[in-house]
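Researcher: Next sequence.
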Amino acid sequence: MMGVDMTGLKRWLGLSLVSTCVLLSLVACGTRTTNRAPVEERMPGSSMPVGAEAIIKLPQGFENAGKPGYYSVKPGDTLTRIALENGQSPRDIAQWSKVEDINRIEVGQVLRVVPPVSQEVVVQAVTKPVVSAGSLTQPAASAPASAAASAPVAANNKPTPANDAEISWIWPANGVVLAGFDEVKNKGLDIGGTAGDPVVAAADGRVVYVGAGLRGYGNLIILKHDNVYLTAYAHNQTLLVKEDQAVLKGQKIAAMGNSDADRVKLHFEVRRQGKPVDPAKYLPAR
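Model: Next structure:
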């Protein structure tokens, strides 16, 4: 029997094993796919990858931006101011626009500021308002002489129809005019008085806002008289009506004050389709 050179055999096996490993590594390198940066599919004409649009939260109502009857919220806007400048109730706009929190709107959000088609057939929001049982004061026109003396505003004014609407107006307060209408500086009339003086509704209407959420107006009441006219009563000391309450011309709705003002006064505005107009053109001559 021939002797086996164990040392040579071990050396040969070791070299064979190394060669096999090297060969397998080379084969693997030849078949492995080169590592490349992922390819992003992009929308034609857009630098945004497909699917990225779903990640970005678009503002509510964005599909209506620029359409007639809609308004895109800008920095500093509040729902109350948007409503006042469009001749609508804040709650109506919130309902039409499906806004859940009327105190929270976002820049870029698009709001409907005109009634839906189904509601446009309504000619007047209030025609013959009925004073609720909780009203604090009855209109001076139907009050006895003693009551009329406490609210001379309604008793001393003869109703005068507006230029283009069947609305009869009276002065909302009995004091002197401190500042007249100016489209830039003063969007209404400032009427003087003393704290607690009565502030009355200038015409029949419905209360669409009561509160102090509009900067520069203090304690504010907004009445809607029809689909065209709103009136605003600012800087009050006390507010005596509630939202959605019907009021009659001459009914006391507030007590005069100086909230968010430099002195006691009533700031009174008439808004025609949301745009401020000179109240002196609608109120009867004194």
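Model: Residues 140-281 form a domain with the Glucose Permease (Domain IIA) fold (CATH 2.70.70.10). The first strand starts at residue 70 and ends at 72.
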